[in-house]
Amino acid sequence: MPFQHPEEIGYGYVIERYAARKDSGHARYLVLQSGRFLRPEWPHAERFAHHLIDDSATITDAELEALLGYEWRSRLTAAWLIGVGRRATFRERIGDLLMASEFCFSGSSYCFALARFGTHADAEILTAYLDRYLPRTDLRYDQPAALGALLRLDAHLGTHHADRFTEPDCPWDQRVNTLAHLRDHPAYTPTELRRWTDLHLGLGNGWSRA
User: Fold this and answer.
1) Continuous segment of H or E residues that includes residue 84
2) CA 107, CA 76: separation in Å to the nearest integer?
């Protein structure tokens, strides 16, 4: 997909205002990418979450589009703001970006947003992604995040989209057995992937404004 710097469309300020914002001494995109905000001992977690929730409610659709049209840091941040704010009008855009899989790091935030939307349409997007990318062992971006999000949606919706990916000797097992860094690593079991998604979605009082 083509991408452009927000300055080119009159929104140059959005990177500093939303992606590079430092509520804790670290740029927001770095905190989101690292998962630092999930650590109970991190002293800035509550402040960070409150500012993220506030921004998710006030950022305009045009500002979000400006962020989504650029590189991975801005896309990651935009997808988090979209997910936290449940801006479901961005579902198709988020799905297109996930399927394109252009940048590392940003894809997990698309999965977070889809899990936050919480509908059958979101489960279908994640299923399509896994159908395309689970066999691609040369691409190691976001398959774990997508499976965790799909497992979360199945539990929420009472569906079974993830079953065919997680049954013994099915695509997830085949992927894990092919990639040495996944094999025998507890963080990549379906149970742990679902738990990790639950942590993201459960933080910040359900990601709603107080």
Assistant:
1) helix 72-84
2) 7
Could you tell me which residues come within 8 angstroms of residue 193 by beta carbon, excluding any fewer than 6 positions away? 144, 145, 147, 148, 151, 187
What angle separates helix 107-117 from helix 143-157, to the nearest 10 degrees?
0
Distance of CA 121 to the CA centre of its chain: 16
pLDDT at 204: 41
- Would you say 38 and 198 are in contact if contact means Cβ atoms under 8 Å apart? no
Residue 7 has pLDDT above 80, yes or no: yes
Cα separation, 151 vs 161, whole angstroms: 8
Is the pLDDT score of 192 beyond 80? yes
The whole-number pLDDT of residue 147 equals 93
Question: Which residues are within 8 A (CB) of 5 and not within 5 positions of it... i.e. 6 or more apart?
Answer: 12, 70
The rounded distance, in Å, linking the Cα atoms of 112 and 59 is: 18
Tell me: pLDDT of 179 over 80: no
Q: Nearest to residue 75, comparing CAs of 93, 58, 57?
A: 93
Cα 77 to Cα 21, 59, 148: the distances in Å are 10, 12, 20
Q: Which of 125, 141, 7, 144 is nearest to 74 (CA)?
A: 7
Cα–Cα distances in Å, from 198 out to 10, 52, 150, 153, 191? Answer: 37, 18, 11, 10, 11
Residue 198, pLDDT above cutoff 70: yes
